[in-house]
C-alpha cells in the first residue's frame, strides 16, 4: 500500500507540537559533521526518501508519510512487480552484483579481499575454479533462451507422462467416474513418492527437521501442503477468480494433458502401451476436467487450517505413530512413502502430524474423488511447479493468470538475468555465497554485526529484569535463554564451510549441471535438495546449518535451535554500514536484530525453553500476563485496513501477524536502548543536511526507511490472506505507536505506548 492511501495530517504552523519541536532542537547540541563520501551518500538517501513536506508533517500522526513520501515518488513498480520496499531494492542490488560475478571470468587476477582465491593454496584454488565453473554452467544454461524455447513444452511433458504412467487411467476405468476404492488407490503412494523426489507435495507435505520437544533429534513431519493451488484458501470463495482459474486450467490441460485430444495423446498412448498399460481414455472436454480439479482443490482448502493455526505450535505439534497416521489416510500410505524417502538403515514408528483433522478430511475427500480427477490434479501440480522453468505458449495462460493475481502486467516477466541469478542461488546457493562474500562483506562488517547483536542481547536482558508481569523464576530462565541464543553473522563456516572449496565441491557433488539442459538442471537441483533433507534422518540435528544463503536480504530466529541468523545480504547499505554514524545501523539493522531476538519470547517462541525444547516453562500468572498484553497487539493491528477485492475494508489479521508485531515492538525498544548505551561511550557525528533531526530521531528515521514501500492492490490482498507480517506501512505506524522512546524523541503529546510487552 503506497503512502497515497495513508491518512496524512499537516501540522498547524503555530501549534503547540511545533513549539515543542523548536525548543527540542534548540536544546540539541550539534556534534561534528561527518562529510565522508559514505556519510554524504547516507544523508542523500534519507533526504530523497523524506517527504518534500517533512518539516510540515507531524511525526506523531503519520511518520510513514514523513519518512517515506519521497521514496514513494522516486520508486515505481515494474510491470513484473506486485510490491516492493527498501529490502527489494537491496535484493536487486545484490542480484546485480551476483550477475557481474556470474558473467565475468573466474576472478583469479583481480583485486581480492581476505576471502579471495588469491589467498588459497594452488591445489584448493583449482577446486574453487571448478566450483565456479559449475555456477557458470547453471547460469549459462538458464540464460540460453534460444535452446529453452526450442525445447518448448517437451521437458515438462516428460514429467507429465511419467505421472500419467505411474497413475494411469485406462479406457475401461474412464467411463465410470469411479471413486478410489480397493486396488483403485494402490498406486497413489508411487506417484506421490515420484513427485516428492522432485520437490512437489500434493495432498500431503512430508519433511524432516528438528523435533520441537527433542531439538537434537530429527523427526518426520506431515502437514497440509503449504499451497493447495491458489495462493490462499480465501480465493476459493471468490467466484470471479474461481471462474478465471478454471478457464486457465482448461486451456493448459488442452495442451499438456496426455489424455486430451492433442498430439500428446498419440505420443502418450505409445508410451503407455510400451509399458504394458491398456488403452488410455480420450477426453475431449478439458472444461469438465478443470471444474473437477478446482472442486477437489476447494475441498482440500476448506479442510486446511487457517494460516494463524498452521503456525501455532500448540496446534501443529501432534506426535503420532506411523500406523496411526496410516489409519488416518489409508489411501496415501504415509509409512510406505516415508520408507522410500528415508535412508535404508533408518527405522521409525513416529512422526509429527501438523493437522490430524486435515488428514481425516483428506481421507473422506479422496474416497469420493474419481481416479480421473486425481490424475488430472497431479498433472496440474506438475504444471504449476515447473511453469516458470518452461518457455512455451502452452503455459502462458497460467503465467498470465498468476501475474494478474499479484497485480502484475499479465504478459510481464522479470529480466532473464534476474531469473537466472535466483535459479543459481536456489540450486547452488552456497557456492554463490562464497563469491558474494568476497565482494560484499568484510571482517570489519562481521565484527560490527556481532557487536550490535551482542548489545541487543545485553539490552534485552536489562528489559527482562525490569518486567513486572513476569514471575521472577520465569525472568531468570528467560535471561538464561537470551544468554544461550546462538548468533550467526554473515556466512556459515560449517555445513558447509563456504570458504573451503573442497567442502563445497563435496556438498554439491550429486548435482548434475550442464550448460545446455536447463530443465534437467532444475530437476537435479530439486532432487538434491529433497535428498539432503531426508538424509538427515538418524543423525543428530546439525546446528551448524543455515536456512538462508548468504546473499539473502532477510534474517530469522529458529526456536528449536534457539539461534538468530543474519546473512551478509541484509548487512548492506542502507540497513547496515560500518562507515556511517552508528545510530543509522542501530536504527535499521539493530531493530532487525532485536526483532529476531524478540521472536524468542513472542506468541510462538515463548513455548520454547533455553535449550530449544517445546515445553511449558512459564508460570500460569506469567502466561495470563502475556495473553492480556498480546491481545492488545491483536486488537491494535486488526484496526488497520486495505481496500479488499470488493473495495470494502479488508482488515489486517491481528492473530496471524501477532508474533511479528510483538517482535517489531521489542526489536525497536531493545535497539534504541543499545544505541543509547553506545552513544554514551562514543559520541556520533551528525550527518550533513539533516540538522532538522536529532540523532535519536534519525535512529527512528533509519528504522522506518527500511519499511518504505508500495504495493499493488492484488498483492496487498494476497499478503493479508497469507503473510504473518503486517503491511509495511503498518509496521511503521504500529511500531511507532508502541514505542515510548519514539514518542519522547519526537515530543509527542501522548507518551504512553498503545501496546507494550518489554
TrEMBL record:
Keyword Hydrolase: yes
Cofactor(s) demanded: Zn(2+)
InterPro entries: MetalloPept_cat_dom_sf, Peptidase_M13, Peptidase_M13_C, Peptidase_M13_dom_2, Peptidase_M13_N
Family from the record: Belongs to the peptidase M13 family.
Name listed for the protein in its UniProt record: Zincin
Gene3D superfamilies membership: Collagenase (Catalytic Domain), Neutral endopeptidase , domain2
PANTHER family the UniProt entry points to: FI17812P1-RELATED (PTHR11733:SF167), ZINC METALLOPROTEASE FAMILY M13 NEPRILYSIN-RELATED (PTHR11733)
Species classification: Eukaryota, Fungi, Dikarya, Ascomycota, Pezizomycotina
PROSITE patterns linked: NEPRILYSIN
SUPFAM superfamilies named in the record: Metalloproteases ('zincins'), catalytic domain
GO terms for MF: metal ion binding; metalloendopeptidase activity
Glycosyltransferase recorded as keyword: no
Residue ranges occupied by any Peptidase M13 N-terminal domain in the UniProt entry: 59-492
Domain Peptidase M13 C-terminal: 554-754
Amino acid at each position: 500500500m503506497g503512502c497515497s492511501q495513508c491518512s496524512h495530517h499537516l501540522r498547524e504552523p503555530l501549534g503547540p507540537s511545533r513549539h515543542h519541536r523548536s525548543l527540542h532542537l534548540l536544546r540539541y547540541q550539534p556534534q561534528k559533521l561527518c562529510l565522508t563520501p559514505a556519510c554524504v551518500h547516507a544523508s542523500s538517501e534519507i533526504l530523497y526518501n523524506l517527504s518534500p513536506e517533512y518539516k510540515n508533517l507531524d511525526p506523531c500522526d503519520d511518520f510513514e508519510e514523513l519518512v517515506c513520501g519521497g521514496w514513494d515518488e522516486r520508486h515505481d513498480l515494474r510491470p513484473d512487480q506486485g510490491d516492493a520496499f527498501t529490502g527489494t531494492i537491496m535484493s536487486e542490488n545484490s542480484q546485480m552484483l551476483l550477475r557481474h560475478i556470474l558473467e565475468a571470468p573466474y576472478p583469479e587476477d583481480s583485486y581480492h579481499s581476505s576471502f579471495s582465491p588469491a589467498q588459497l593454496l594452488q591445489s584448493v584454488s583449482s577446486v574453487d575454479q571448478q566450483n565456479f565453473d559449475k555456477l557458470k554452467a547453471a547460469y549459462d544454461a538458464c540464460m540460453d533462451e534460444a535452446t529453452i524455447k526450442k525445447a518448448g513444452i517437451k521437458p515438462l511433458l516428460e514429467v507429465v507422462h511419467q505421472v500419467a504412467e505411474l497413475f494411469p487411467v485406462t479406457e475401461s476405468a474412464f467411463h465410470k467416474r469411479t471413486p478410489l476404492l480397493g486396488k483403485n488407490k494402490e498406486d497413489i503412494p508411487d506417484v506421490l513418492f515420484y513427485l516428492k523426489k522432485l520437490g512437489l507435495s500434493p495432498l500431503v507435505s512430508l519433511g524432516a527437521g528438528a523435533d520441537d520437544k527433542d531439538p537434537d533429534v530429527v523427526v518426520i513431519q506431515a502437514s497440509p501442503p503449504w499451497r493447495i493451488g491458489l495462493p490462499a484458501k480465501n480465493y476459493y470463495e471468490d467466484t470471479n477468480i474461481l471462474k478465471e482459474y478454471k478457464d486457465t486450467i482448461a486451456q493448459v490441460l488442452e495442451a499438456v494433458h496426455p489424455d486430451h485430444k492433442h498430439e500428446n495423446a498419440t505420443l502418450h498412448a505409445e508410451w503407455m502401451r510400451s509399458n504394458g498399460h491398456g488403452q488410455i481414455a480420450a477426453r475431449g472436454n478439458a472444461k469438465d476436467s478443470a471444474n473437477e480439479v478446482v472442486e477437489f482443490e476447494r475441498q482440500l482448502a476448506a479442510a486446511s487450517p487457517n494460516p494463524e493455526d498452521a503456525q501455532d505450535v500448540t496446534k501443529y505439534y501432534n506426535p503420532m505413530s506411523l500406523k496411526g497416521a496410516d489409519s488416518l489416510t489409508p489411501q496415501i500410505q504415509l509409512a510406505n512413502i516415508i520408507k522410500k524417502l528415508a535412508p535404508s538403515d533408518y527405522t521409525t514408528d513416529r512422526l509429527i502430524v501438523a493437522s490430524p483433522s486435515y488428514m481425516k478430511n483428506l481421507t473422506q475427500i479422496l474416497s469420493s474423488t474419481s481416479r480421473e480427477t486425481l490424475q488430472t490434479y497431479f498433472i496440474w501440480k506438475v504444471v504449476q511447479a515447473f511453469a516458470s522453468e518452461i518457455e512455451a505458449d502452452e503455459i502462458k495462460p497460467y503465467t498470465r493468470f498468476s501475474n494478474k493475481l499479484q497485480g502484475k502486467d499479465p504478459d510481464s516477466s522479470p529480466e532473464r538475468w534476474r531469473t537466472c541469478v535466483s535459479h543459481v542461488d536456489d540450486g547452488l546457493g552456497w557456492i554463490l555465497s562464497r563469491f558474494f562474500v568476497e565482494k560484499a562483506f568484510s571482517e570489519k562488517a562481521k565484527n560490527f554485526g556481532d557487536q550490535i547483536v551482542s548489545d541487543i542481547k545485553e539490552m534485552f536482558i536489562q528489559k527482562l529484569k525490569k518486567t513486572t508481569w513476569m514471575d521472577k523464576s520465569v525472568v531468570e530462565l528467560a535471561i538464561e535463554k537470551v544468554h544461550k541464543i546462538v548468533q550467526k553473522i554473515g556466512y556459515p563456516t560449517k555445513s558447509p564451510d563456504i570458504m573451503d572449496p573442497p567442502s563445497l565441491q563435496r556438498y554439491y557433488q550429486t548435482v548434475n549441471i550442464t550448460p545446455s539442459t536447463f530443465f534437467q538442471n532444475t530437476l537435479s537441483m530439486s532432487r538434491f535438495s529433497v535428498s539432503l533433507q531426508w538424509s538427515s534422518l538418524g543423525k543428530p540435528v546439525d546446528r551448524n546449518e543455515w536456512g538462508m544463503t548468504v546473499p539473502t536480504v532477510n534474517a530469522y530466529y529458529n526456536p528449536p535451535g534457539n539461534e538468530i541468523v543474519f546473512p551478509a545480504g541484509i548487512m548492506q547499505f542502507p540497513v547496515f554500514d560500518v562507515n556511517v554514524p552508528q545510530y543509522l545501523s542501530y536504527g535499521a539493522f539493530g531493530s532487525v536484530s532485536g526483532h529476531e531476538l524478540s521472536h524468542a519470547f513472542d506468541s510462538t517462541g515463548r513455548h520454547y525453553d533455553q535449550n530449544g525444547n517445546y515445553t511449558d516453562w512459564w508460570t500460569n500468572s506469567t502466561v495470563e500476563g502475556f495473553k492480556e498484553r498480546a491481545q492488545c497487539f491483536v486488537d491494535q493491528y486488526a484496526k488497520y485496513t486495505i481496500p479488499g477485492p470488493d473495495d470494502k475494508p479488508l482488515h489486517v489479521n491481528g492473530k496471524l501477524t501477532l508474533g511479528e508485531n510483538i517482535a517489531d515492538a521489542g526489536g525497536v525498544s531493545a535497539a534504541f536502548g543499545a544505541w543509547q548505551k553506545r552513544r554514551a561511550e562514543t559520541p556520533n557525528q551528525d550527518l550533513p543536511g539533516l540538522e532538522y533531526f536529532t540523532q535519536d530521531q534519525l535512529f527512528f528515521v533509519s528504522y522506518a526507511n527500511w519499511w518504505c514501500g508500495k504495493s499493488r492492490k492484488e498483492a496487498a490482498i494476497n499478503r493479508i490472506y497469507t503473510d504473518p507480517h503486517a503491511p509495511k506501512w503498518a509496521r511503521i505506524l504500529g511500531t511507532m505507536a508502541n514505542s515510548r522512546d519514539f514518542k519522547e524523541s519526537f515530543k509527542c503529546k501522548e507518551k504512553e505506548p498503545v501496546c507494550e510487552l518489554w
